[in-house]
């Protein structure tokens, strides 16, 4: 099918979605024949790869959940609902994932009794079920990404965007944890699919789909609200197109006859507006989307209405935490915007990030309508998040679906341009048939796939291999069980959940069932001069732990029989990253190394690899190739003072 034929006002564009992306049994410019089956086969391969990457290493660290958010927020609260009822009493993170996990656990384990019994004996299976649920939602998001790209452009863009989203590092890694970042991508991308439908057809079901995805997405993670902008843009374009003065030329830049068929649907008057459109119909559709968003949000987060005080308090808390100055020691001070731009380079990939930028420029040049749909949302999201005081790479995930589509579109535009330039003899008429070169397009498409997907696939496989190996914290615990007697007093830095000091599924004849007596690590005893001042005793947050440390603590430990000290690089690394901010902590670690002997040390790095400097992403997601196993570098010291001397 030619671009000229695609521009004929004959109804919905052939690039509109699954049902219209091929003509005469030959999909556009693909070289594949035989209808949609090759596309389904390719999509099945992409989804299988995406799911495999998300399930490989899914049991990392278990039975202990070492991610603080996973351990505190979603799975425990889903279990707690069996006793405390459906009100989560916690809205800093919206509860849609908690409700979903509650339902999944109830079905899988047969209700409250089965979940409680399994979690008490061995929480591994409970966390695996929760993590697999997240992995499946992440794979669902990849399929929806294909539909979004195919609806907006064509199947080639959809498939390449899905492949990129399926292997990109950040969505793959966070599909291994029962957190809400990856599950948000499914309803968020569903909303984008609906917005693409609004732009293409403007049917009531398109508005409803966009609204449902928006509502459920916001009930899963508040930042999913960014997809309201594409919906608003699609409706506004639809509204303007319904006005008589805008129906003549939807785009100021009509593509040449040799233009890509992917743009044909975007530049056809009938693909954006239709004779049945009217301003009232568009406004009705937008109202339908808003109503669907509100209803779906309240279904997935009912206590936003039933307990408005707690809901408002949770929103306020989350807002203050995000906006406050970077209180995390070791986070650096380059600024959120630069950090996010750097995170795109490894979280999505350098080539895809640059291709997405090129796609934003290209799509706006070729068709401003698609530009309004695709470009403002990621730009404004980056601008907004760049103003926040705290920043983590995974907070970029809500704009990944749009970036994947832009990158895929730009890569295939380059392929088409190179094919036209290479196969057209100089001086021939523009409409002359090009020489036959059937190998060129498949070769260039293969190179485009490699350029966009190679980095993500390589580092996702690397991270999965790391996650499939024993965690340093599990190995350190096994050593302590074998060498540190029951009831021994120990100092353990706050890098571990409390359950780490207990024997899973076994009742110990000790206080609270702890194998060892733990020093209260979040207790500050140091006065302004660095000496122990018991009257200055106060409990601090995890963020301030390094500020409680000083050399005077070493003899204090010994005087009270705490002869074993466990340190981890995810705590000490914070101080080492900013030594001028916490000089007493630096002196503490030096004194510990001088006055204690290392009884056991375990490193996550491969032999000969250079340790990774502390970073709130790379110290926890194992992206650098230096990692061989998950976890921090751990050292267990035995103090050598008189009371701790070996007897």
Structural class: mainly alpha
The strands making up the biggest β-sheet line up spatially as 4-3-7-9-8
The portion of residues assigned to helices is 55-70%
Largest sheet: 5 strands, mixed
- Look at the structure and give the mean pLDDT: 87
Oligomer: single chain
Compute the gyration radius: what is it?
A: 28 Å
How many beta-strand runs? Answer: 9
What are the segments in which pLDDT stays under 50 over at least 5 consecutive residues? Answer: 1-28, 246-275
The backbone outline, from C-alpha atoms, is globular
Give the percentage of residues in beta strands: under 5%
Q: Give the terminus-to-terminus CA distance.
A: 88 Å
Number of helices: 26
Structure, described:
- The chain is mainly alpha-helical and 647 residues long.
- Helix content is 55%, strand content 5%.
- It has 26 helices and nine strands.
- It has a five-stranded mixed sheet.
- A hairpin with a 2-residue loop joins β1 and β2.
- The longest helix has 31 residues, at 336-366.
- The chain starts with a helix and ends in an 8-residue tail after the last strand.
- 49% of the residues are buried.
SSE blueprint and pairings:
Layout: H1 3-6, E1 22-23, E2 26-27, H2 37-55, H3 68-84, H4 96-109, H5 112-121, H6 124-152, H7 155-167, H8 169-173, H9 181-200, H10 204-220, H11 228-242, H12 264-267, H13 269-272, H14 279-300, H15 303-306, H16 308-323, H17 336-366, H18 368-374, H19 376-385, H20 400-423, H21 440-467, H22 472-483, E3 489-492, E4 517-518, E5 523-524, E6 538-539, H23 553-559, E7 564-568, H24 569-577, H25 583-595, E8 596-602, H26 618-621, E9 634-639
Parallel strand pairs: 3-4, 3-7
Antiparallel strand pairs: 1-2, 5-6, 7-9, 8-9
